[in-house]
């Protein structure tokens, strides 16, 4: 009998995510996958899964799951309270779950996205080789809703034999390293230095596609718009308003606004944890 997980409450927004669909941009399909890829990888390692197994990504916690069979889970990403049955549990460590137990995530105290991996992985049907929910491309399983059941796969690796994976706390003001983008000449000479010397705040317009930022205007040196050109995760696009938009996991594969800078791949996990109202800074490398 296949083990099942029942979604009792999905919280604010929760999806199934893995490491996405790389290599399909030429046919209009973005990579998608976990916004904070490091947290997904760690959660899977803690329960003895391959790093790319499908897990759950939830915004600000609030997720409640009920298990039909014994399981081992791990919760990583944005820190939140965790209970299993009547027992408190800790993040970044394997957690044993008994049949009938409910796993309850409290509200995240900082950061934005929590990850829940279960030993064996979330075994929904793959689409184009991945189980990730692409919210922009409308691919993969639907967002979680109350009453939904999720199948659990069979374990294929041994238990890792660890009790805890210590992690540094999320920064109050994350610093994201950037390289100059392909369209710096579209801006006035001081625009790039303005971006990397000023603080920007995440607006309420934050989702898996990207983060719209508010701060000093990045002024253009020329008018008009670009023909659509390829876009990448971490691209900092600047619309006519002069307020930058940072692309995340479900970004479009093309865009028409000029890209002034690109966040380093290694810092995209930090970007994925920026919540509305939080300050962020950029550093040129």
Automatic annotation (TrEMBL):
The lineage of its organism: Bacteria, Bacillati, Actinomycetota, Actinomycetes, Pseudonocardiales. This is Allophanate hydrolase. GO terms for molecular function: ATP binding; hydrolase activity. InterPro entries: CT_A_B, Cyclophilin-like_dom_sf, PxpC. Residues 26-285 form the Carboxyltransferase domain. The keyword Protein biosynthesis does not apply. Keywords: ATP-binding, Hydrolase, Nucleotide-binding.
